[in-house]
Every structure is written in structure tokens, then in C-alpha cells.
Amino acid sequence: MKDFVVITFYKFFDFPDYKERQQPIFNFADEQNIIGTILLAHEGINATIAGTQTALDAMVNFLHQDPRLADLTYKVSTAPKQPFKRLKVKLKQEIVTLGQPNVDPNNTVGTYIDPKDWNDLIQNPDVTLVDTRNDYEVGIGTFKGAINPNTKSFREFPDYVAENLDPQKNAKVAMFCTGGIRCEKATSYLLNQGFQEVYHLKGGILKYLEEIPVAESLWEGECFVFDERVTVKHGLETGHYELCYACGHPIDAEDKTSADYEIGVSCPYCIEALTPERRSRFEAKWQQRQQMKACQAS
Fold first, then answer.
1. Which among 177, 223, 267, 270 is annotated as catalytic?
2. Which partner for 224 in 71, 87, 137, 146 could form a disulfide, CB atoms 3.0-4.6 Å apart?
3. Which CATH class is domain 4-91?
4. Which pTM does this prediction carry?
């Protein structure tokens, strides 16, 4: 069986009719047997979807018919199995949640840096390099020398900036995220706070891993993605992580050797929250899942 094709895309634009567009977009994607998540909000569109190449080409052409999306671009990768369970087209307040209504990437945004120029920028000692992703994502992989803000959600990023960055002391700030969308808002926010030179990786980590050879790369580890591939490596090949069935935290082979790991029940990241009641519930759910798999295989 051929791999599934996965595309990711986003665009910030004035989208007052986003609610009216929900059903037509869902209907077209559903007709093409596309699975994944598409987020719509007044500020734009954000999506990761999977299907056949023909279906995804048709979907992109459908979106391009809207003049506001005529220049929509996307990143392509593959997955050995379907990385999503169903199609969702959801209405949101924001396509990426920062919780700062005055931040508008359509008006103010940082300087885009192409992947081929990224290494030179972040090796500049005058540049403060910040990973805008959440703590568990940073723990899986990041750029050499990057600062981990230790945030649990993107909403915490403004607090990190207020407590740790200063426009006078941090004259040049470079930021990056998975696909680029969080940095659109992060760079806009910093510029609004008085920072003068703010840069972000164009296309995000995914574009860097797609274009930069391993021998030239400053990336260390793997990159978390929000689908059943869990992580990707250079060349956007599926990585080595999987999700703990109990808590959903990414785990690797070393985590699975821990005494705290019990398949379907716990891992080192959720063992402290494992009560007898939770253990009983997870054990029952895991047994049920295995029985369903056995029935499907027979």
C-alpha cells in the first residue's frame, strides 16, 4: 500500500464569512475522502489533512477558487498509515490561540527567514533564539542553543516574554515553531511590545527538515506533529515516538523501558496521577481495544 499524503497549510486573512464556509468546505473534503482537521476563524484558516494526492490536489484547487486563498501554499509529507480518524472542520475564535486580540499578523509580522539562511542567523551570538512551542514538544527536539520558555500552552507565551525578554537587552530575537503559524503571532506580539528586530523561520521546522540536509542541520531530535505519526525526522520521515495510550504524552523506546511504563495504563509522565480507579478504567479500555483488534483481524 502506498503512503498517505499529508498536507499542512494556514493563512491569516480577513474571513468574516468563515461560519458560512464551514459546510461547503466540509462537504467537498468529505466527497474526496479526506481526513484531518481544518480550523476556521475570523482571522483565517489552519489545516492538516490527509488523503490521496489526487484528492488533496482537488481540495487545494477548491480553496484556490476563493480569491482570498488564491495564493495559499502548503507543505507536503507522507505517513505509512492514515494519520487521522475522521474529518473535522471546526469554527474557532483563533486559528492558533494566543489570547491577545490586538495581535494581527496581517498588519505586523516579523521578518521571514528561509530555511537555507536560518543556520547563519541563529549562529549569530547577538541573536536570542526562542522556541515558541510547548514544553513537551521542545523536549522531543529543538534547534541547538534554543531557549525553552517552558510553556504548557501558547497562551502562556506573553507572560514568558514579559518576564524574560527585554527590547533593550534582546535586540535581535529569532523564533520558530512547527509549521510557522505560532510564530506569525509571536513575532507580531513582540513587535507590538517594542522589539525592533524579530525574525521567524519561514515554513517552520517542517520546511527546514524538508529542505536542509542532515549533514548541514542544526536541528537536534525529532519534531512533534499533531497527528498519529507523533513525530517526524529529516526528510519528514515518520519518527520513533508514539503516544502513551493513557495520557497521550509522546514516549520513546527509553520511556518504555521504565518501571513506570505499563502498556495501555501508564508511562513516566502520568504515573503520579495513576489512581486505582484510573488503573482499572485504563486496563478495561485497553483490553477492549485489543479484543476489537482481534475481531477485525479475524
1. 177
2. 137
3. alpha beta
4. 0.85
